[in-house]
Amino acid sequence: MLKIRQFVFNFFSESTFIAYDSDSLEAIVIDPGMLDRSERDFFDKFIAENNLRLTQIVNTHLHLDHCFGNNYVRDRYGVKIAASPADAFLGATFEEQVRKYIGDDEFDSRKIEIDIPLHEGDIIPVGQYKFHVIEVPGHSPGGIALYCPEYNCAFVGDSVFYGSVGRTDLPGGDGRTLIDSVRSKILTLPDKTQLFPGHDRMTTVGHEKASNPYLK
After folding, report:
1. Mean pLDDT score of the chain, rounded to an integer?
2. What phi and psi values does residue 131 have, to the nearest 5 degrees?
3. What are the DSSP calls for 154-202, one per residue?
4. What is the DSSP letter of 85?
5. Is 23 helix (H, G, I), strand (E, B) or coil?
6. Per-residue pLDDT for 214 more than 70?
């Protein structure tokens, strides 16, 4: 059975997810945003208590709040970072992002390097389940979603939220591209597909098609 655990980390209230197969105990972490020791310890405790074997880090995009914990998880668990190469410039300038938006060097600000470049149609296995990579640019140039048809869910990063969409005023963002991406790539999934965004509450494709004012 596929299981999903959501954490809310850092002062951006970012959603980090662990998706795991309860039979094989294989797991991936999506957008590791843990920022300080207490958040890292909380994450590690969940991994240990559930005997999970992390196989990969997957980033829906590389804005700093979604990858504060990338290097920690890579070092601690010996796994690789998978993300779209179109966001590589964000990983390369991670230190500058930290200085700009946080203003000090208290946190781990090593650049984020992509080990596994992801593209439309790639498949990420998690035990018996398969996550399909869908390119959803606009919030960032390399925004992606991870769609699991067997479990009828998708992790959509900051592309679409409950009743809203992601901001597009950050480097590489583009409003028209984002709306077109969400309409053509996310809203074409089955209506009952659960959408897990990078902030705030879960929603569904059907709900956003019917009521999201940005997608009319």
Report:
1. 96
2. -105, 125
3. EEEETSEETTEE----STT--HHHHHHHIIIIITTS-TT-EEEESBS--
4. G
5. coil
6. yes
pLDDT in the model for residue 109? 81
Gap between the Cα atoms of 114 and 163, Å rounded: 31
pLDDT greater than 70 at residue 135: yes
Q: Which residues fall within 8 angstroms of residue 164, CB to CB, at 6 or more apart? A: 212, 214
Of 168, 169, 161, 163, nearest in space to 145 by CA:
161
The structure tokens listed for 200 are 């705030």
How far is it, in rounded angstroms, from Cα 159 to Cα 167?
8
* pLDDT reading at 105 higher than 70: no
Q: Measure CA of the first residue to CA of the last residue in the chain; give whole Å.
A: 35
